[in-house]
Amino acid sequence: MTGPSPARAAAVTKPASLRARIRAAARGPASLRGRVTLGVLVLLALILAGLFTAVDVALSSRLHADARTRLTDRMALAEQLQGTLSMQRLADRLRGDGVVVRLCTADGSACATAASDAPPPGAGRRWGSRPGRPAMTRTAAVPVETAGSVIFVRQNLAGDQVLTLSLDTTQITDAVQRLIVFEVAGGVLALVLAGFASARISRAALRPLDDMTTLARQIAAGDRGQRLDPPRSDTELGRTAAAFDAMLDELEAGEVRMRSFLSDASHELRTPLAGLQANAELLLRENPDREQRERIAVAMVRESRRAARLVDDLLTTARLGQGLPLVAERVDLLVLAGTEADRARSLSPALTFDVAGEPGLFVDGDPVRLGQIVTNLLDNARHATPRGGTVSVLVRRHGPRVRLEVSDTGPGVPPEERTLIFERFGRGDASRSRHTGGAGLGLPIARGLAEAHGGQLTYADAGPGATFRLDLPAAAG
């Protein structure tokens, strides 16, 4: 397996897309308040435009339909009254409500007209009826024609008479246009009031963001102890403020860890460097004999190796946090444990190393890094085990995983220190101090490498000594 894992790649992609959305939002108006206000005004303008358009279209259609119905009703009334009234009286009876009446003979020799600007002579008002509007009984089935702004109907009546009823729709158009003017004026006023109210409301609602900006500037100026402390965390801004506080806590803790790491690393490097410096100065100040020069050279080599190993451990620790590239191979864990036990046996001949387990238990992983895990566990065990003690390695299957256990007959690790030993530069009790062990990076590196292989490294309370348990996914097949 090479490169970052899919989960890590997804974790990198999500912040990238989040940053892209933030940059896209920043291209709008200068402030979030302005964007909210503009969005509200645009939405309100669209709603008002749609509502006013629907009202105008519906009203215009209704008024024109009423005008056409008025003409057809008058034509039906004319058919009922024809023959009972004279031409002029019939024309006067049909006029009103803007209807213009023209009743002529077929040859045009006689005509009677009546406009709607005056009431018909002698027209009385019946109780409960509107003046100038005749009673309607039915609607005539005659087509309504249009000539410009005038609509009209024409019908041949009995007695060779031609009746024409017309109505000018200019008043309807003017009424609709006046309504549009009122709607535009009212809409502009509503938008102004809505913009003012939206600005005030958004200013009050987004005030916590201004507080966050002020707090961020105070923290950037050096006041790292400031926090928002939102009273409620069940709202959008409350959750944002809580996440902001959590981020500040994590950054502050990370800064403390980084300072502690640098301090511990400097402290660990100081010892081998001081030894190298002392031995080098001894060679420069004195003229030692051959045997003494050899002892000084051996000491310098030992200290330089110790410094080199510490630098390698620091580099591995840094790479673990960035995603360590691994080479995938099929590894026999029992064979690997035997090889590393032989190396540890040559370094500590006073100890007994026992390796046992089931043969043919394979895992997929990087053999170099897996060997580093087993090496760190064996080094930790042999440094903690007194002379004549035993270090045992057991490899066996545990469900779908392969388990490797490294046990020693040393003093073990007290319960209160079992989490400390997996922290960088954490050593636990005195038996695992700098003088007998390493710098406190072996177990943290081993756990990080195990997790990089999809496994776990834990401390198991399985005996008088210390037992470390490594679980790795078994290879397929």
From TrEMBL:
**Entries under CDD domains matching the protein:** HAMP, HATPase, HisKA
This protein's source sits in the domain of life called Bacteria
| One MF term in the entry's GO annotations | phosphorelay sensor kinase activity
Q: Could you say which enzyme class this protein belongs to?
A: transferase
SUPFAM superfamilies assigned: ATPase domain of HSP90 chaperone/DNA topoisomerase II/histidine kinase, HAMP domain-like, Homodimeric domain of signal transducing histidine kinase
Query: Where does it localize?
Result: Cell membrane
Kindly name one Pfam family recorded for this protein: HisKA
Q: Do you know which PROSITE patterns this protein is assigned to?
A: HAMP (PS50885), HIS_KIN (PS50109)
Occurrences of domain HAMP (ranges): 203-256
**Primary residence:** membrane
Give the keywords, sorted. Answer: Kinase, Membrane, Phosphoprotein, Transferase, Transmembrane, Transmembrane helix, Two-component regulatory system
Q: Which residues cross the membrane?
A: 36-59, 179-199
Catalyses: ATP + protein L-histidine = ADP + protein N-phospho-L-histidine
Q: Where is the Histidine kinase domain?
A: 264-476
Provide the E.C. number(s) assigned to this enzyme: 2.7.13.3
Q: Where is this region: Disordered?
A: 115-135
Q: Would you name any one GO CC term?
A: plasma membrane
**PANTHER family the UniProt entry points to:** SENSOR HISTIDINE KINASE TRCS, SENSOR HISTIDINE KINASE YKOH
Its recorded name reads histidine kinase
